[in-house]
């Protein structure tokens, strides 16, 4: 099998627009030039792949947490996030951001499951504090969160906590960056 880029049988692919990006940089400001997304991947030699990637037009609108004790979890998450509570008649509750939901502030749906959490979360929230992250960690622990070891090395820029039912989440030391 041929070698490509030091990997047996694989070649690097760049999909999308260096040409488009070059044109966008030379276009007059405000010209509305659309830049295609550039995607780099590695594929087996001879494999057919798509030649253009179109960005999706979706955003995260809501985060759902299955809960055993709805009252405990409503109290914790509404206080933790400063969200308003709308309790349903079906054993669930919707937590609304203080302002209209946006991509920056999705709603939280606490869905009564009647069962305890089992195993490690496959998906979790990463929270960022408006002020001192460690002060926020202390506040969340005071509300009922606890520190959790999920294999951290001690060099992370986040603190791992669990809510009162054991659902892991992180408090970042600062906003995510590229």
Salient structural properties:
178 residues, alpha+beta, 3 helices, 18% helix, four-stranded mixed sheet
Question: How would you summarize what this structure contains?
Answer:
The protein is of the alpha+beta class and about 180 residues long. About 20% of the residues lie in helices and about 30% in strands.
The whole-angstrom Rg is 22 Å
The structure class reads alpha+beta
- What is the tally of helical segments? 3
Overall average residue pLDDT = 79
Strand content: 25-35%
Q: What portion of residues is helical?
A: 10-25%
Measured between the Cα atoms of the first and last residue, the distance is: 36 Å
How many β-strand stretches? 12
Please trace the helix and strand order, writing H or E for each element. EEEHEEHEEEEHEEE
Strand order of the largest sheet: 5-8-7-6
Q: What about the largest sheet?
A: 4 strands, mixed
Task: List low-confidence stretches.
Answer: 1-27, 30-40
Global morphology: globular
């Amino acid at each position: 099998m041929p070698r490509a880029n030091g990997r047996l049988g694989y070649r690097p692919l760049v999909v999308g627009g260096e040409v488009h990006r070059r044109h966008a940089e030379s276009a007059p400001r405000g010209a509305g030039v659309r830049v295609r997304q550039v995607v780099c991947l590695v594929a087996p030699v001879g494999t057919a792949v798509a030649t253009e990637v179109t960005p999706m037009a979706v955003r995260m609108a809501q985060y759902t947490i299955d809960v055993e004790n709805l009252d405990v979890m409503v109290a914790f998450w509404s206080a933790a996030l400063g969200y308003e509570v709308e309790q349903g008649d079906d054993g669930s509750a919707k937590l609304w951001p203080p302002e209209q939901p946006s991509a920056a502030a999705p709603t939280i749906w606490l869905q009564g499951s009647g069962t305890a959490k089992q195993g490690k979360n496959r998906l979790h929230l990463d929270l960022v504090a408006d002020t001192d992250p460690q002060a926020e960690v202390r506040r969340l622990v005071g509300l009922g969160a606890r520190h959790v070891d999920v294999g951290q090395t001690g060099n992370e820029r986040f603190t791992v906590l669990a809510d009162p039912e054991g659902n892991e989440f992180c408090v970042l030391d600062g906003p995510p960056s590229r």
